[in-house]
Each structure stands twice: as structure tokens, then as C-alpha cells.
Amino acid sequence: MKNRNVSIIRDTDDNKIVVIHDIRFKGKRRICWEDVEEYLKEYIDEFYEIAETKDLVFIGKDLSDEYSSSIYTRTMKGAIAKAKANAAQGIPELIEIANNKRFDENKNIKHKKDAAFGWYRYDSRFALPIYSENGEIARYNVFHAVILIRHDRDGTLYLYDIINIKKETSNPPRQ
């Protein structure tokens, strides 16, 4: 895994936030999702534990393609697209701090095998730096995201995508 400058902190309400200190994927008009896809391939065959539930979440070969070219990703623009691209750097920590586990049955024939036992959704949060004109960090934007995990026919949980990313307007990280 390449060097990552990522940490976990707590906000003023004592909730965890993954702070991604570097903006690796930049783009004034569009994100190069091919670069994000290549970056994500470094996670394949790794696994991470969700602290709240002790669930082990594996990274399969399908993550890089789904994350970078899903219908959800293709509809994103601007700051939210940039946020998703850069959230890729914090995947291990986003999984670790995930909470609020919810179950959905698989309703799509396309996923009959790879999500035979349905889907789990967890909430997670991350922050990205906003730089001033002189290149200094001026503040951080905090985002809420849903971690989408598929429950495979073999009983394994796999990270499938990070979706429903929304910028938060309160609960700044503690200094």
C-alpha cells in the first residue's frame, strides 16, 4: 500500500471522523476515475474489521471497478466527486469506524450470486482539507457516507462501494 496520510479523530460530539490529510485526486473539471481505479487495486485481498460489530470486511476484485464507474459515481460532480475519489485513501479507516449497521435483501438478479445473503449498509464519516490561496490548510470539509457491503454466497462480507456522500454542515473536528 502506498503511503497514506490518514488519521481518525473525534468531533465535538465525540463521533469518529477519518481525516484524509492529502488531496491525491485533483481535478478542476473532472476526476480521472481510471487513476482512482488503479489506486483501489492495491487494496485487493486485504480485509478490515468494523470496530462496532467485529465484522470482517474483505476487499474483492470488483471494488475498484464498482467504486470508480458505478451509476452513482457517474452521476457525481464537483466537490462530491472529488470527495469520493479522495475517500479511497481512507478505506481501511472508513470501514473501521463504520456504525449503524442495516440490512437489505438482495432484490437484483444481477447480484444473485455475489450478494446472495443481501446487503449491509453502515454509516461512516470523513474529512478533507480545504487549502487557502497560499497553499495552507484553511479548514476541513466533513462528509457523511454510506459503506455498502455485499454478503456473498460463501458467507464473506465484501466492500462493494461507498455511496450517498453528503457534505455535513456541523460538528467540526476537534483541534
Topology (SSEs and partners):
Blueprint: E1 6-10, E2 16-20, H1 33-40, E3 47-49, E4 56-58, H2 63-69, H3 71-75, H4 78-87, H5 91-96, E5 99-104, E6 119-131, E7 137-151, E8 157-167
Parallel strand pairs: 2-6, 4-8
Antiparallel strand pairs: 1-2, 3-4, 5-6, 6-7, 7-8
Helix pairs in contact: 1-2
Give a structural overview.
There is one protein chain. With 175 residues, this protein is of the alpha+beta class. The protein has one domain. The chain is 21% helix and 35% strand. It has five helices and eight strands; from the N terminus they run E-E-H-E-E-H-H-H-H-E-E-E-E. Strands 1, 2, 3, 4, 5, 6, 7 and 8 form an eight-stranded mixed β-sheet that branches. Strand 3 and strand 4 form a beta hairpin. Helix 1 packs antiparallel against helix 2. The longest helix has 10 residues. The chain is globular, with a radius of gyration of 16 Å. The two termini are 28 Å apart. The model has no long low-confidence stretch (mean pLDDT 90).
